[in-house]
UniProtKB/TrEMBL annotation:
InterPro entries: FAD/NAD-bd_sf, FAD/NAD-binding_dom, Ferredoxin-NADP_redctase_2. It comes from Cryobacterium sinapicolor. The lineage of its organism: Bacteria, Bacillati, Actinomycetota, Actinomycetes, Micrococcales. Residues 4-277 form the FAD/NAD(P)-binding domain. Coiled coil: none annotated. This is NAD(P)/FAD-dependent oxidoreductase.
Amino acid sequence: MSNYDVLVIGGGAAGLTAAVVLLRAGRTVAVVDAGAPRNAPAAAMHGYLSRDSMPPRDLIAAGQTEVAGYGGTIIYGTVVDVQPGFRALLATSTEVGARKILIATGLRDEIPNIPGVRERWGQDLLHCPYCHGYEVRDQPLGVLGGDSEAVQHALLVRQWSSDITLFTNGTSPTPEQREVLAARGVVIMEEVVARLAVFDDRLHGVELVDGALIPRSAVFVRPRFVPNSDLLTALGCDTDDNGWVTHAATGRTSVAGVWVAGNAADPRAQVITAAGQGSTAAIAINAELVEEDIAFALATHRAANPDSSGQ
């Protein structure tokens, strides 16, 4: 079994950034990457200074190169279990040991079960207007969903276009919601949605059950965010009422030696935010390792010099 100072589980922006910071501090680091990033369908990422419009896969590839360049280990695989101590077991039966562990396994998006939604996810079926709104600005846009969060999403997306239609999919907004939507010029379609109409690999609009086709260039939806937190909860990390692992600002969880960063910790973290969280966690992890190294060195020194008490 290989042993490292830190094992990073999750090779996205958070995990790779943390690995680079730790490696530059002289730590031994392994990153386990399952190769299934949440933003894989997206053609480009945005809001990352100096990397705007870069394909997400290119950022990951560059990050992996940097980690390897600093002497880090990249392990392609999936961690299926982590034992206190820490010993991680991969699906290949490989075991990896570490003094500290950072889990940056992200989240998964639960989206409406409507034909075309899953197929167009990350292309012209979008979730984050801050990530993708600029690219579809001033075009006819749709927002899918009938709950209060969908209403708020429609009001947010309105910032990027004056032509917004909220498809409530059979749900009726409250009088208060109707008023504010009308005030912002958002059209409400209460009919049930049959599918997203896609031709020649491009969204043409939203088709209703009565056959009407409402032309739209892109459709936004606010998914339900579900953390990939099985490893964290199996280790006994505390969670909040919504199932998210609680943690300090540095990413430290309730379990000693276990840290979290990125979308596994913060569902609204963009790529640049996740990278920052990875850096913050790495600095805190190294500080904790330094304290342990000092304690070990002091104990060793005293054992070798029993007459030396520091008095």
